[in-house]
Amino acid sequence: MNLPRLFCFCSCLLLAACGGNQQEALSVAPPAEDSRPNILLIVADDLGYADLGYYGSEIPTPNLDALAASGMLLTNFHTGLTCSPTRSMLFSGTDSHLAGLGVMSNPRQNQRGQPGYETYLNFRVASLADLMTDAGYNTYMAGKWHLGLEVETSPAARGMKRSFTMLEGGAAHLGGMSFGGPAPLARYREDFTEITVGDDFYSTRDYTRRMIEFIETDREEEKPFFAYLAYTAPHWPLQAPDESIDRFAGVYDEGYEVLYQNRFERMTALGILPEGAEPLVVDSFTRPWDSLNDEEKRREARKMEIYAAMVSDLDIYVGELIDYLKSINEFDNTFIMFMADNGAEFLTREEGSVGFAQWAQNCCDNSYENMGRIGSYISYGRNWATASAAPFRRHKGTVFEGGIHVPAFVHYPALGEAGTRRDGFTTVMDLLPTFLALAGTEHPGVRYRGLDVLPVKGTSLLPLLSGQASEVHEDTEMFGWELYGHRSIRQGNWKIVWDAAARPNARWQLFNVVEDPSEQHDLSAEYPETLSILTALWDQYEQENGVIY
């Protein structure tokens, strides 16, 4: 282990825990060399809680499993409901309604022009990449941006020294096809320049190798790096090389109900499940597997084979990056954080709205023989997503745990004992202050580069990760979520959920998510006072964050 880096980490951790001014303290006795750790943030797109081997999946993910096993699980980590709101919270340390992603796109008339509804990372927040640059880090990004389409809102404009990014919410994984709409090709940026990619493109491979190239290019500078590797896998459309898909031939022929049960049992045996988890009853599968005919079963199984191939390939290329870090003697000096951006995606967009379904039918060859190949466009649907989300209820786009409670872990030898876990509630908003603490710097507060900016809502995780604290958030703290009318408040063990999909019969439901993590027992009638307290907190959240329906 690199002892100077360990010394710096412990010093920064002590300052963070005591609330000291890290920049000022470090400037008193600067180290002879820049001994701060590198930071690598790996984000998977639409990955379910049960999709990694370490969490009970049958999909082989040995590289990620090894990181988790020798690191620290964050078993109670929460994100936003969908991609761009989560990313705005990550890059700002505050709520998505404040950071510009109160909606993902196309604000309604009453939302247009309103603060927090810009649909890009706005300038009322200081960007994480800018702050890391100011702290003396080289900053790199490869993968999905989804926080602004124009040059002035690009990763390069918001602090990334080097970047290769897909600008929109999704795109083909093989080749350059867009993910729907009038433009046939997806939009990418190489630093400030907008480009397209060719038929030889494979997202997971190319994002990984670009990141390795960025780090290698600047190695002689001997500066620590902040690297944001934002994979688009396993986001739809489901695509992977034939040889990757072939590894899973026949694995899913027993269907989604068997897969769910197998994963649930493995998660129980591994101790991954939170205490009190029960197999789902409320959200049953939309069609029993046995009711499908042979052709339907064949197509459905093929979808999951492709999905598994995408997850497996993600692991393989993470392994390639880890091997590179080891080869340059930086692996032990790198704080690695892995997370998903939200829960599993349940929509089958190619079968959904008339416009999108027609686009998919016209653009693509979704025959069985072409499924998963370039020019195909498919999703795996609600039933497989339910198996991915085990043990939690519902999926991406909702405020049930299946939408916002995601797999997450940290690997960094200086943290202490390997193979540990932290069960305290944590949120994606906590990552910005955590990374700044590792860098020995602080958020600027309410003024940055001549502009008024919002303070962070997150809290550094370093006291939790080091074992100095069992929680970083008090039970009295309030956490809220809202997107397209789906809304929730959590305080301590209690959580209320407004399921917008149930309209016109939507109402507040109340859950004890510690005793009932799969949210199957609505306690609103039994605990009306608790319900009243949390609905009042919702009103407070709504006002504080400028929510506009």
Structure description:
The protein has 549 residues and is an alpha/beta fold. The protein has two domains: 444 residues, Alkaline Phosphatase, subunit A; 76 residues, Arylsulfatase, C-terminal domain, CATH 3.30.1120. Helices cover 32% and strands 14% of the residues. It has 16 helices and 18 strands. The strands form four sheets. Strands 7-6-5-4-8-1-9-10-2-11 form a ten-stranded mixed β-sheet, with helices on both faces. Strand 13 and strand 14 form a beta hairpin. Helix 7 runs parallel beside helix 10 and helix 9 runs parallel beside helix 12. The longest helix has 34 residues. It is globular. The termini are far apart.
CATH topology of the largest domain: Alkaline Phosphatase, subunit A
The average pLDDT is 92
Q: First CA to last CA: what distance?
A: 52 Å
Largest sheet: 10 strands, mixed
* CATH superfamily (homologous) name of the largest domain: Alkaline Phosphatase, subunit A
Q: What is the 3D shape? A: globular
**CATH class label of the largest domain:** Alpha Beta
Number of strands: 18
Strand order of the largest sheet: 7-6-5-4-8-1-9-10-2-11
DSSP helix fraction:
25-40%
- Number of helical regions: 16
CATH structural architecture of the largest domain: 3-Layer(aba) Sandwich
Rg over alpha carbons: 22 Å
Task: Give the class from helix and strand content and strand pairing.
Answer: alpha/beta
Poorly predicted spans:
1-32
Proportion of beta-strand residues: 5-15%
User: Domains counted in the coordinates: how many?
Assistant: 2
